[in-house]
Amino acid sequence: MQIQFFQLSCQSALICVPYTKIMKKNIIVTGGAGFIGSCIVGRLNSYGIDNILVIDKFRSNGKEKNLNKKKYCDFIDKDDFIEKIIDKPNYFQDIDTIFHMGACSSTLNTDIKYLQKNNTDYSITLAKWCMKKDTRFIYASSAATYGDGDNGFTDDLDSLETLKPLNPYGTSKHLFDLWIKKNGLFNDLLGIKFFNVFGPNEYHKGEMRSVINKAFPTVKDKGIMKLFKSYKDGYKDGKQKRDFIYIKDVLEVMIFFYENNKIAGLFNLGRGTAETWNKIANSMFKALRKETNIEYIKMPEELQTRYQYFTEANMQKLNLAGYEKEFTSIEDSVRDYIVNYLNTDDPYY
After folding, report:
1. What pLDDT score was predicted for residue 303?
2. DSSP secondary structure code for residue 119 in this structure
3. Quick count: other Cβ atoms within 10 Å of Cβ 232?
4. Which of 11, 16, 109, 145 is the most buried (most CB within 10 A)?
5. Among 57-71, 117-131, 162-176, 282-296, whose mean pLDDT is lowest?
6. Is residue 65 among the annotated active site residues?
7. What is the pLDDT of residue 52?
């Protein structure tokens, strides 16, 4: 049967794979031009895997540059893709795995109706299709589902209903996790609760970029880094703590899941160690060989009630699943990001 992968022509600036190279089984990456999605495409390429269909929506934010030098079969608009999934369920053939990374990830977006449709409903439609087609489904959840952390950061399914996200984005992700559980699908599908991922290819994300990316020009040119003041008792300025994880470590885990295709369930993905914003700042200054100089600034009022002061992934489940590689230290991760990407003429992964 001819694989129906070529409904759109390849972009001239992108490397597309000739039809004769397509393998029988194919991979779909939604959000494939985004941060984590494009890096997954690149990591698969490094293994010689290029039978990939990229799903995304280009806007005027430079996201298309993330696909430069990547090899894949075709690019399809995310709305056209889901319409075909609904109206022509047999349109896409021989799909082995879907990495569903596509979503609106803005924690500042307050359009609940849009987030429900774009993040929750879209994911439900795709999950149902995968179940009918016996296609592996690996999807992005988020540490934002944990809210203020009062109910812990464990990926134990028994505690799922107790979580209270602080923003509509976290809620949209949480609702999908709950839908998977309610329908008894965690024995078949795989969800990843990403914590604070940073690294190359996040450049298009605006305010949702990591503090490393946003602060880099000022740290480099003016030798100063601005961090939010603390508005919570028990946390001094700069002592707020998050579980930061480098994109290259994330990719190693994603390849582990891809190769071990019997693993299913809901998994945290962080380093398992919370680090202060001050440590991130110190690592940046060290990478640029500058003296540490931090200025603490007022946090926008709209963030003050929705801000996570502490996140730390419980990583026991991933370890029990057999993942044994050590995660890169924050200092080494920040150094690699700055020296090999941010401070170069070609910052893309």
Report:
1. 85
2. I
3. 11
4. 145
5. 57-71
6. no
7. 97
Q: Quick one: CA torsion of 330, 333, 334, 338, rounded to 10 degrees?
A: 170
Q: Contact at 8 Å (CB) between 104 and 120?
A: no
Catalytic residue (choose from 139, 169, 337, 349) = 169
Q: Note every long-range contact of 187-190, with CB atoms under 8 Å and residues 24 or more positions apart, other chains counting.
A: 187/264, 187/265, 188/131, 188/137, 188/264, 189/127, 189/130, 189/131, 189/137, 189/138, 189/139, 189/264, 190/136, 190/137, 190/138, 190/139, 190/257, 190/263, 190/264, 190/265, 190/266, 190/267
Round the average pLDDT of the chain to a whole number and report it. Answer: 92
205 is catalytic: yes
DSSP string computed for 312-349: ----HHHHHTT--PPPPPHHHHHHHHIIIIITSS----
Task: Give pLDDT tens digits for 40-97.
Answer: 999 999 999 999 999 999 876 789 999 999 999 999 999 999 999 999 999 999 999 9
For the chain, domain boundaries: 15-199+244-272+313-328
Exactly one of 65, 133, 205, 229 is catalytic; name it. Answer: 205
Fold of 15-199+244-272+313-328: Rossmann fold (3.40.50)
Contacts (Cβ under 8 Å, ≥6 apart) of 289: none
Tokens 């028994």, located at residue:
158
Q: What is the pTM of this model?
A: 0.91
